[in-house]
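Quick log. Single chain, no ligands specified.
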Amino acid sequence: MAKIDNSSFEQKLFKAADKLRKNIDAAEYKHVVLGLIFLKYISESFAELYHKLEADEWSDPEDRDEYIAENTFFVPKLARWSHIHAQAKLPSIGQTIDEAMEAVEKENKELKNVLPQVYGKANLDKTSLGELIDLISNTELQAENENSKDLFGRVYEYFLGEFANAEGKKGGQFYTPKAIVKLMVEMIEPYKGRVYDPASGSGGMFVMSEKFVTEHSGNIKDITVYGQESNQTTWKLSKMNLAIRNINSKFVAWNTEGTFLKNAHPDLKADFILANPPFNQKDWGVDILQEDARWKYGTPPNGNANYGWMQHMLYHLSPRGVMATVLSNGSLSSNTSGEGDIRKNLVDADLVECIVALPKQLFYNTGIPACIWFLRREKSNHSKEVLFIDASELGYMKSRVHRDFTEEDITKIRDTYLNWRNVIARTKDEAISSSQSLYQDIKGFCKSATLEAIQKHSYVLTPGRYVGIPDEEDDGITFEEKMQSLTVLLKQQMDKEQELNKDIATQLAKIGMSL
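-> predicted structure:
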């Protein structure tokens, strides 16, 4: 049997699930669907181990400790998918699922207060719910082609993105577009160590870090993730997202006070920090935190938390750590309330390594252009150079309102950065093999700028100021020929304009006579 195209499968599955939504908002419906996907995943993982234990005469497949030993969730009988599916057509199916979720939480303490119990609500059509269960049950056909964890992990991730797109601005609060996360992860290369996200959302940074490690033949146990989220609903999504990927989420915390006012990891020194914090956040609590130790490079203004987030991350960065954070473009040039001084101090301290300008319309929650800051404790060159990459013209319109990067776009930006780091890390005396591609400034796209150049621009870090405007391709036509052609064209258009004006005057005169 030919292998089914999984990408097409995910799209079809989402469209089919969305048709069953009827009168429920996407914001509410996502918990219904994602909760079922999670329940199906843990049930399949449980069943796989159950059958192995069943075949072993010395093991008891109903012994909870057997599953704990294998890092697998124990699923009680009333929550197993076979039981759920068998009752899918009954009017009581909503209550059945809510009881199943409650039972799973009771048996697995790491899932306490995480799983949605919304299936008994009156506004959820129980016939559609039964059809949704049937739909998700059919994913068993796909499991023949790949590991069920990978399948359901990808389905969960795809659904998160589609729900974020459907919710628009609110969706951006829990989801960072996959292409941006992938770009950030591939540039900082989190092979081994502590990975931290102080605004962790639905856990996308951690999932992509795990993918990076496994794709490069690493061991997922070599990274430990730390996170914090102030929105409990979003935190629940992240706990399920990480559980499907078998990523230990015990250090991903939630509290209502938030990262600034109640730091969940006060002593953490992370090797890799990845974040997409809220843009231009106001009233974030600096009036309470005036003398905080995190403000080493200057106290951020209460009206904008951009430099508060950046310095919070720097405070938690290990001596050899690297961080990547998405911020609004205003962070590159603002001089309001001392922000320019903080930016100057960061550059002078040789912490800023790379700035990437992003295109508009990449994010679900805002259409304004943004940028990615890369900061590193130990820059390889120590020559106080900063790499500027202007990617504002890359990407394509995925929909009428949303832009996305292609794989080629991601590769171009990533390789430019890695090649630059490879070149500046070498001593002048060290030979570089011809097989290695070397970094070169490309007008209109990338520029390695010295501290002196940055000083001349008054510490404004907008990439366009440094990379310049790309040269137009030489089409073989001389300047004189182009001017002559344009002059002829202009005269033709002016003559045409006079003819049209005469015609309009004639028509108006006729109208006047008829009146």
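Residues 7-145 form a domain with the Ferritin fold (CATH 1.20.1260.30).
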